[in-house]
Queue: 4 jobs
Job 1
Amino acid sequence: MLFTKQVSEPIKNAEVFADILEDVFSCIPGAYEYDVLSDEQINGLHKRTVEITDESGDKIAEVEIYCYPVGDEYAVEVELLDGKPSALFTVYTAQEAAEKWGLAEVTVRQWIYRGKFRANEARKSAGTWLVTHDGMVRVAGKLKTEEEMNMYLSDNPVVDKYLRLALQNPETPFIYDNAKVFNIKRLYDFVADHAKTENIVFEEVLKEAINSEGCYEMPSWMTRSGKPECIYFDREDEIDNETYDVTTIIKFR
């Protein structure tokens, strides 16, 4: 992840997109020009892939920019696919490192106090402990991939990112086809807690839940307990008075 930010308008707004690109350029030394390689939208998620070149026209980086509605604003995430960012973006606060590795902040601080980090991997700045990415990898290990957790969000990379953003912003409903899903993280946590089967695709579980009536039942062959496990949800249909389109509202309990 290169950076995240909140914006008031979606990235199809030229001024908003220009501001985001300005931030991108500040993160990549030598950035001079850009070219939009692809522009995709799926439900509420907007993704643009952008190539960054230097003053001589040589490619130096490639980024993906994601924009997703969160309440009355939009969340933007920028991922670096290729290239080298400024050194500033390979350093985390103790809290950021803890969140990224799924640890308690006190754990990272204790590692610092006990001397687990080398002198060039951790230091204090204005009262805040900073650690490098390489230092965290050496001490805590590499970040777990979805393959290692035996669950994928989706085989479609755009849906995958859309689901990832929805899980990070649980107060915002996840829009999928004609369904609006609230509390989707409860379904994700349910699957993570109960499933034993390898290589589960979360999107497929979500589809089954959407097509169920008030309860998604995980079959016994998928569960760690060897018994069927259920998660319940409220379901109702909402009809648009002008278009008569039907939206299914699902709220996981």
Job 2
Amino acid sequence: MPGLVLSLTNAGLAAVQGASGADPVTIAELGLTATPFDVAPTLTALPGEFKRIAAISGAAAAANITHMTAYDTSSDVWNATGLGLWLADGTLFAVYSAGSTIINKAAVAFALISFDISWSADLAASIAFGDPIFTNPPATEDMRGLIELATLEEAQAGTDLLRALTPGRAKAVVLAWLLGLDGAGSGLDADLLDGQHGAWYADIAARLGYTPLNAAAYTAADVLAKLLTVDGAGSGVDADTVDGHHAAAFRRVVSSNIAANGGYIEYSDGFKETWGWVDCGANASAWYDVPIAHTEWIVPALAVSVQPGDDNNSENTGVGVITLGPPTTIEIYSAENFTARVFIQTKGK
């Protein structure tokens, strides 16, 4: 049954106010009445009292809760609608009245009365009991004793400080409590990842410090277009160099004529190579027109065809006058007594 809320009489209040934990007031008897009455602090007697039970014991279950046990071994038959607590000095300490029966006893039964009294103030520590029979107090955070199991409704409410949860009730309500608190701002770490909500991770650009590219939309053509914007000398792109060198570091062919006679190659730095031949008559000179003009310098090299039985052709053939151009010409002379084919190779600018 719920705790009975007893009302102190004026005399009882005065007694407990003068008491302390070291010198408490002593409740010696439990008085019973079957007459409903109006509770008033001025009462000094229990209206309609029909019995007193001296065998009572109790203990403080909490600051404002006293657990009390009374023991009636008589053959009396009674029904009680109210009760009063009497101090050892005969003072009516506190009273309770209800409109219907709260306690009853049959003739063949012993009455073991065990109930909790809720005081309207923290008085439990200042109250003692005279008869040290057994007590069966409710369990609290500070006292071992009986404990009531919570119903599903009480468990769902989550406000009861005295009733206990079974594993089944706990399973039924704990998840519901958590789901009721789930979400941003709940304070539950289960709602977070390393202390952050999901929205924190969804902001990818903020986490990376830059906006990532959309790989599906970024094609090879996009990459090429961006490379072309930095293409050229000084771009720093290695594709613009060969072994780390730009094109200016290499001699490039700018024009050529790959022919057996009158062939040439012209390079980007102005250097030129030519080759060809000219037939020079016996004891005569011939002019070789260089296929591409040299304006700065030219170095010719000669080779002469050899006639059978003649082993000194090259000694009788040489270069006469060189005219830089344009056009560029070279005079070839021969002291042979036959026509000689002179092969000419030049290098210059």
Job 3
Amino acid sequence: MSQDRRILHLRFALPHGHDPDLLQQLRRLLEDFTPRLQMLEPDGAAADLTGALRFWHRDARGITELIQLRAMAYYSLRSSAGVGPNRMIAAMACALTPPGQRTVIENTAEAIHAFLRPRPVRELPGIGTRAAATLAEYGLHTVADVADVPQLTLQRLLGTRAGRTLHERAHGRDPQLIDPTPAPASISAEHRFPPRRTRCSQAPARPARPRRRPRCPPAYQQADRPEPDLHHPLRRPELHAAAGPCLRRPSTPCS
């Protein structure tokens, strides 16, 4: 909190079935005050007013009132606004502000603690129903309860990364910056190739080849013995060359 940053979070009361170009028109309106702007779908915007304070010779509350006044005069739109030293506090302040009003949290430790500590822990960004239920089992219901717990205890309850993030946010620290051109969460591409007939697709299918019957190895038996004693090919036929006339094939074919 050494740098005096002024972050504005806006939420516009857009009518049902509004013009799709209305958000772009609101973007151009906000760009008249600061180039560090990020539109938040479907009806919000975040802007860094730190550099605009000296140019407009106004404080953050004065610039916010002027933005809301122009949005009402040009487009008949009421808006809720929250101003804080970082994006998290500005978004939480905006969520608690009714349309047509604004909430400004000064960049002091006393003002930040007075705003955050009484709030329920489920209002912190990134705390879902499951995490809130886990914290409630241990008696941690408000941001003040979480801020007074050591970081290692929160990491044992929620995990290393979630516990560290919760500890930082419970003390009012948020490193997020305003990115005018944020990177998309995902990207995809699709290309459809036209159907094409190839020579293989035009040629008729070949008939299935008939399966060949497996070849049986020859079986031999001696002429002077009724029972065969050799049913496989000879490994060394030269040793049986002298007995060649005595060897013949069986008369029955193999099955």
Job 4
Amino acid sequence: MSSETAMLPVTGSELPASGFRLHQTDGEADFGAVVDVLDGRLAAYRITNFISEPDRRAIESNFWESIHRSPRYGEGEDGVEAYIIGASHIEKTTDQYLSEVAAGTRALADLYAGTTDPISAFRRRLGAHQPGVAVRAARHGGRVAADSKAVCWNNAGEFQLLPHDDLAQLSDPLQKGFEIQQVRRVMAINAYPQAPAGAGQLRLWNVEPDDASRARLGLTHSGYPYPHAVLRDRQSLTVEVAGGDLVVINGNLVHAVLGGDPGPCSPRRLLLTAFTGRDPAGDILWWT
């Protein structure tokens, strides 16, 4: 395939103007808006001051003091792309992922020691606003997915995390039979104990890529990364984030984490994150 063909604009469905927008509230969650993101009617929703200042400080301290924090090597400062606590299913077999989840149970407990886990608290409240709908961890063979993971991106440049979608990765043949493969819409939950100004904003593009675009770009089972050039003609939306925020985004849309320059004395951006989506019965599953 020629490079010209590969760089053709990405094709797929898009949200109407009424849905491709950011909804915002302060302190209290609007779970009607959360469900609109979950079900693909809204691009993003930001709740400012969702995490209390004491919990923010405690989680950040627990993260940097943790013996379980591990580097992910790659393109980043000093050859480290990110520092992580917790398991990710991406590019792993189901067994490998769930084994890592089980092995990391203590690490997550220590991360939230002396604090409130904001993502678990958020999901409990979501469940209370969805009567008759189970909100639970995805499971396979009697084992369950992780509640969340913590990430500090260490990349420099235009993007801390390159443009991608969160749906394609669910089709990976390595995870055949894992119930997350039945999910058709993904909502990412992102909570920020720390987020310095000037970097780490979320950028969303108004396109849910189709299978033909993913295949043309070699992203069928990953959805990562979309070249920036194939997105230039698409409407985009930037979501500012600050410490204490919780943001949910429509993960079927292409999105990225921007780089920037927060300044030499700024604290590092710390993210708590998990995926959610409905199974065919309408129940809400989570995984990482």
